[in-house]
Each structure stands twice: as structure tokens, then as C-alpha cells.
């Protein structure tokens, strides 16, 4: 289930339950003849049902729908104003479903602020007008509810953030996930065509990766790849992007980089990797295949295939080598 769909269900469930809860309170007040509270309950349930309808209408962009904040501010302000102006016993409990709803639907900080703005008048009125035990019960109950719901919302945000990081980065190396390579490369090609700036690419593979795996195990190889990724991130500049490839391979996309530039950076990377003593593994080497976009290159696959071809050539020339293959310029 996508995050947007999950949020749609959560929001719809939250609005429905809160509307049901408030409607039950309204009916109870009707039974006891508290007509003011009955009408307040009806109005609040109606606003909550508008929230439900809004959730369904905006189901494709729940994360950015601004109407939730407006509706919730309206309903929270309505309850706070009623609590302050109406001497109605037990009305403080009406804040409970709104506290849950605020934190379930709004971003954590905004949900906390709105809940605090509701709870301050509710609790103050309760301490001034109710017996001590009742005020203590209400304060304890609402604050506990606030803490539990805020903790849940924080945990959910945290998990969603980690899932997003995992989707963007390769969990083994920490470089970007390979499935974004083609898309980014195609975008960079379009940008290079539009602006006339050069674009280069490097395919990079660890030499003798299988021997390293059999000597140091898969874990040793993965640690080495993570360390190499860190080193590559230290070398490349901000606009460059680094992707994991199959096995022990990486790809670098280098915007604004001409042939002379990609030769310089490839040689710098080759040296910096081969001159290091890598923890537990010792010295290692890499082969690099470089290419620069020619005026004929409009497809990501063409550029990637040429970088891989250059890397195979580097391998043939004895590894620990950087090799460059130029693109064919367009025929006039
Ligand atoms: N994309 C990319 N290109 C680089 C990088 N480092 C060097 N280059 C290319 O190599 C050329 C020469 O780089 P350097 O030897 O560092 O000389 P420089 O004049 O200090 O390079 P810059 O001021 O970064 O342009 C640069 O103009 C770039 O085209 C890098 O980290 N990323």
C-alpha cells in the first residue's frame, strides 16, 4: 500500500470514528435535555463528515491537502470557545477525539500545537469549575492520550522516513539505488541538450571482487563497498551523483564535465582507491570506464552502454586502469 493510500484510509477512519463518537455524545445530551450540547455535537459531527468527504475527494494528494488544517482548526476553535463560554459539565471529554484526530491527520508539530491550543482552555476551565478529583482525572487522561498519540505519530513519521531512505539508497553500499540511474541520466541528457553543457559518465568496478568475497566473506566485501562509497562521496562534487550497480559496480553521472574533466576525476578516483590500505582487506584496485556525451547521444542506454564498454576495455588492459571512449559526433 502506498503512503498516500495508507493516509487516506487513516484520515477517513479517524474522521468517521470521531464523528461517530461525537454523535453519540450529542444523542446522550439530547436524552438529558442539554439541547446546547446536542446542537454543538451535531455541528461538530457535520464538520467531521465534511472532513471525511474532503479526504475522499483529495485521495490522490493527501500529503499536501491544506483543507485538513482548516477544518481541524475550525472544529478545535469551536470546541474551545464553547468550553470557555458555556457552563456545561463533562464537555472537557469532548476534547479527547479531537486530540487524536489532530495528531493523526496533521504533521506532528502542527498537530501538537493545535492540541495544546485546545487543551489549555479546556483544562483551565476544568480546574476552575470542577471538583479537584474530576479536574485531576480529566488532566491526567487527556495528557496521557496526547502523549500516546504523539508517540505513535512520531514513530510512524520515523518509519516512513526510513522507508523513503531505503528506497532511495542502496542498503549495502549507501550509494543511490540503481533503479533511479536511468531516469536521472535521461534527465541530465535532456538538460545537457537544452543548455549545451557537457555531460560525462563513469562505470566503475572493483577488481577481483570474487577473490575478495571468497577471502573475506560477503560481509567483508560489503564493508569494503561501503567504505569505497564513502570515499567516492568525499571525492566527487555536489552536482555529481553516485549509483550502485550489479555486484561490486558503481556508476557516476557527472553533469557539466567535459572529456578532459572526466579523465581528471577518473584518474583521481583510481589513485585514491589504489593508494589506500582498506580495513581488513588491504590494498584493492578498480577499473573505470569513462565517456562523454556527444551531440548524437540522446538516450541514457547509449551512454551507459559506452561507459560499460570502456570499463570492459580497462579490465582487458590489466585492471587498475581508467579508459575513455568518446562518443561519435553527429554527422553534418
Ligand atoms: N564532475 C566532476 N568533475 C571534476 C571533479 N574534479 C575534477 N573535475 C573535472 O576536472 C577538471 C579539473 O579539475 P581540477 O584538477 O580539480 O581543477 P580545478 O580547476 O580546481 O577544478 P574546478 O575548479 O572544480 O573546475 C574540472 O574542471 C572538472 O571538469 C569532480 O569532483 N566532479
Automatic annotation (TrEMBL):
Q: Which InterPro entries match?
A: Diguanylate_Cyclase (IPR050469), GGDEF_dom (IPR000160), Nucleotide_cyclase (IPR029787), Rev_trsase/Diguanyl_cyclase (IPR043128)
Provide the top EC class.
transferase
Task: Give the keywords, sorted.
Answer: Membrane, Transmembrane, Transmembrane helix
Q: Which residues cross the membrane?
A: 12-31, 37-57, 69-85, 91-106, 111-128, 134-154
Pfam families reported for this sequence: GGDEF
* Reaction equations catalysed: 2 GTP = 3',3'-c-di-GMP + 2 diphosphate
CDD domains hit by this protein: GGDEF
GO CC terms in record: plasma membrane
SUPFAM superfamilies tied to this protein: Nucleotide cyclase
Ranges in a coiled coil: none
Q: Name one GO biological process term.
A: negative regulation of bacterial-type flagellum-dependent cell motility
Q: Name one GO molecular function term.
A: diguanylate cyclase activity
Please indicate which superkingdom the organism of origin belongs to.
Bacteria
Q: Where is the GGDEF domain?
A: 197-327
Q: What is its EC number?
A: 2.7.7.65
By its UniProt entry, which PANTHER family does this protein fall under? Answer: DIGUANYLATE CYCLASE DGCM-RELATED, REGULATORY COMPONENTS OF SENSORY TRANSDUCTION SYSTEM
**Protein name, per record:** diguanylate cyclase
What is the organism lineage in this UniProt record? Answer: Bacteria, Pseudomonadati, Pseudomonadota, Gammaproteobacteria, Pseudomonadales
Amino acid at each position: 500500500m502506498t503512503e498516500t493510500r495508507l493516509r487516506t484510509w487513516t484520515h477517513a477512519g479517524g474522521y468517521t470514528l470521531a464523528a461517530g463518537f461525537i454523535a453519540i455524545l450529542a444523542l446522550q445530551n439530547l436524552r438529558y435535555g442539554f439541547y446546547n450540547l446536542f446542537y454543538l455535537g451535531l455541528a461538530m459531527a457535520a464538520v467531521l463528515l465534511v472532513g471525511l468527504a474532503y479526504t475522499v475527494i483529495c485521495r490522490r494528494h493527501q500529503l499536501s491537502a491544506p483543507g485538513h488544517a482548516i477544518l481541524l482548526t475550525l472544529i478545535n476553535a469551536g470546541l474551545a470557545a464553547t468550553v470557555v463560554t458555556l457552563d456545561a459539565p463533562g464537555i472537557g471529554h469532548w476534547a479527547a477525539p479531537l486530540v487524536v484526530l489532530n495528531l493523526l491527520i496533521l504533521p506532528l508539530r502542527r498537530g501538537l500545537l493545535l492540541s495544546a491550543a485546545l487543551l489549555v482552555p479546556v483544562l483551565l476551565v476544568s480546574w476552575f469549575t470542577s471538583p479537584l478529583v474530576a479536574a485531576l482525572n480529566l488532566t491526567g487522561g487527556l495528557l496521557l492520550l496526547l502523549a500516546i498519540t504523539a508517540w505513535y505519530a512520531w514513530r510512524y513519521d520515523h518509519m516512513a522516513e526510513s522507508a523513503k531512505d531505503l528506497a532511495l539508497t542502496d542498503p549495502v553500499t549507501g550509494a543511490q539505488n540503481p533503479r533511479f540511474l536511468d531516469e536521472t541520466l535521461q534527465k541530465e541528457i535532456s538538460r545537457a541538450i537544452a543548455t549545451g553543457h557537457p555531460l560525462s559518465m563513469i562505470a566503475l568496478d572493483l577488481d577481483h571482487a570474487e577473490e575478495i568475497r571468497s577471502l573475506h566473506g560477503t560481509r567483508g566485501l560489503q564493508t569494503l563497498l561501503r567504505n569505497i562509497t564513502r570515499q567516492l562521496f568525499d571525492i566527487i562534487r555536489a552536482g555529481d551523483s553516485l549509483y550502485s550497480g550489479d555486484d561490486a559496480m558503481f556508476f557516476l553521472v557527472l553533469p557539466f564535465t567535459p572529456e578532459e574533466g572526466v579523465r581528471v576525476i577518473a584518474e583521481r578516483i583510481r589513485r585514491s582507491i589504489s593508494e589506500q590500505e582498506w580495513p581488513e582487506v588491504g590494498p584493492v584496485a578498480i577499473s573505470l570506464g569513462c565517456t562523454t556525451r556527444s551531440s548524437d547521444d540522446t538516450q541514457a542506454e547509449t551512454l551507459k552502454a559506452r561507459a560499460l564498454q570502456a570499463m570492459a576495455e580497462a579490465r582487458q588492459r590489466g585492471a587498475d586502469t581508467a579508459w575513455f571512449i568518446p562518443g561519435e559526433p553527429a554527422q553534418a
